[in-house]
Amino acid sequence: MSASSNQFQELLKLGAKHMRLLAYMVAVAVFASGIYAGIYHPKTTLLIPLVLILSMAQSWLHRYLRNVVPAQATAVTLLLDGFITGLGIAAIHYALVPTLVFIAMLNATVLGFGNLFLWVFTGFFCVLGSLLGGFVFGLEPGLHEQVPTSVSIVSLIGVTIYFGLNAFHSHSQSRDLLSAKRQLQEQKEESFQMSRKLIKYLPPQVWESIFQGKRDAKLQTQRKKLTVFFSDIKDFTETSDEMPPDLLTEMLNTYFERMSKIALQYGGTIDKFIGDAILIFYGDPVSKGAKEDAIACVSMAIEMRREMQILRQKWQSMHIDKPLHIRMGINTGYCHVGNFGSETRMSYTIIGRDANLAARLQGIAAVDEILISHETYLLVREHVSCKEKGAVSLRGINKPVQVWEVVDFHKDMNSSHSTWVEHELNGFTMHMDLSKIRNFEKEAVLKALEQAEKKLRDTKIL
After folding, report:
1. Count of alpha carbons within 13 angstroms of residue 35, beta-carbon side
2. Which of 49, 95, 340, 449 lies most in the core, judged by the most C-beta atoms within 10 Å?
3. In sequence order, which residues have a C-beta less than 8 Å from that of residue 389 and are 6 or more positions away?
4. Alpha-carbon span 243 to 312, nearest angstrom
5. DSSP 3-state helix, strand, coil percentages of the chain (rounded to 5)?
6. Residue 337 bridge partners (DSSP)
7. Could you give the CA distance from residue 210 to residue 190 in angstroms, rounded to a whole number?
8. Contacts by 389-392 with C-beta closer than 8 Å and gap 24+?
9. With 0-12 CB in 10 A as exposed, 13-18 as middle and 19+ as buried, what is 365?
């Protein structure tokens, strides 16, 4: 992207250099025609090489100023162009047509940069140069009436060539600009597509904070209070040994896809997938406060447990006879979170005792069980019903840990107000979330239940 932009800038600078040289060449032609017509003193011939030297000196000065004071380089050069133009007007003794030609070329040059403030100052320097030139070359009022037609014709031909080539150059610049814009758009689209591919390897909250400039891609960590979630599929290793690789891959990807959607729905930061295990945490890079983060995490776990009931039906239709269940562990505490690794390869993750505690809770959980630490329980007890499991000793943890089992939301504990209906028997599974059924789908659901009831009543079961 930057290469195309620099290329176009170079074209602009090259064009400005050539148009300045052409303007000075028109001035040389006017001086030469005036000397030939005998209206200027032969000594004026010395102005011709001086004008050529000035054009080259201006180009050199502009290059030098770009390196020293790049922001003021163009302005200084244009002001000098205005001053030199004023001297030239005085040198031709203010002849009407050549004067208008010089002013027209100067205006075209300055207005090409679209700066009216600079245009006013350049005009001021032109007037200043013409007054100073009047004292040097002398003031001869009325001389413009004696200017031969040949001088006017040369001036008009010169300005015609100048504006013609200027228009041609502007057209070429427009084409180059369009080409550069197309290249920039293509490179932008390529970068966008590449970014979309790369961001899938990072949690959405992380790459958003990087693109917004809130986070740097460098090795740095901070100690923050997080709610950490671990889950895995119970007896997955034994089950996977009995499954074809293609079926195993499809099942695992479906599982990760559904769980990831739920995690993002509740604002969780998906750290990593480890085999069939998932590590998610709340509190960085975005946090709503320790209490809200804990409630969101536990709510996510309950939703995942419900989603697994639906997935089990799907997997049974894929002839996966052994039912798959998950177990989950949650803990709230202080961890170090950030970029770990090296400058060439880093990973955004968490470390700390409280992260390990969540993993240990997941390890002792029974099927479809959500175990939380006492710290998490204190934050969520107003919203979630929990059952005390007592103090348990965990591997790698020095002291016994008070553990609680998540039962359900308080609002769903009362069956009359619950929005979740579930029932599982051998050969029969029903899971219905009333909060997700839309109004226009209600009749379809009732019809499906009626058809199932009729089919069951009409079927003779041995």
Report:
1. 15
2. 95
3. 371, 403, 404, 405
4. 15
5. 60, 20, 20
6. 222, 350
7. 19
8. 392/364
9. buried
pLDDT at 44: 65
Q: What is the pTM of this model?
A: 0.57
Could you give the 3-state DSSP secondary structure of residue 216? coil
10 Å CB burial of residue 406 (0-12, 13-18, 19+) is buried
Closest CA to 279 of 318, 233, 232: 232
Residue 9 pLDDT level (bands cut at 50, 70, 90): very low
Strands (DSSP E) found in 26-124: none
Of 394, 389, 352, nearest in space to 374 by CA: 389
SS3 243: coil
Instruction: Check if the beta carbon of residue 362 is closer than 8 Å to that of residue 331.
Output: no
> What single-letter DSSP state applies at residue 440?
G
What is the predicted pLDDT for the residue at 427?
64
Q: Say which residue, 15 or 234, is predicted with more confidence.
A: 234
Give the pLDDT confidence score for residue 417 in this predicted structure: 56
> Whole-angstrom distance between the N-terminal and C-terminal Cα of the chain?
74
Q: Is 423 helix (H, G, I), strand (E, B) or coil?
A: strand
Residues facing 431 on adjacent strands: 422
Is the distance from CB of 82 to CB of 129 less than 8 angstroms? yes
Q: Could you give all domains of the chain from N- to C-terminal order, each with its CATH number?
A: 2-190 (no CATH), 221-418 (3.30.70.1230)
Q: Which amino acid is at 317?
A: S
Instruction: Tell me the two tokens of residue 155.
Output: 């001036």
Total Cβ atoms within 10 A of residue 158: 23
- Please state the separation of Cα 240 from the chain's center in Å: 40
* AA letter at 102: F
Residues 6+ apart with CB under 8 A from 310: 431
434 token code pair: 């009333």
Q: What is the DSSP letter of 461?
A: -
To which residue do tokens 């790698």 refer?
A: 396
Q: Are β-strands 370-373 and 326-341 bridged in parallel, bridged antiparallel, or unpaired? A: parallel
Amino acid letter, 39? I
What was the pLDDT predicted at 231? 95
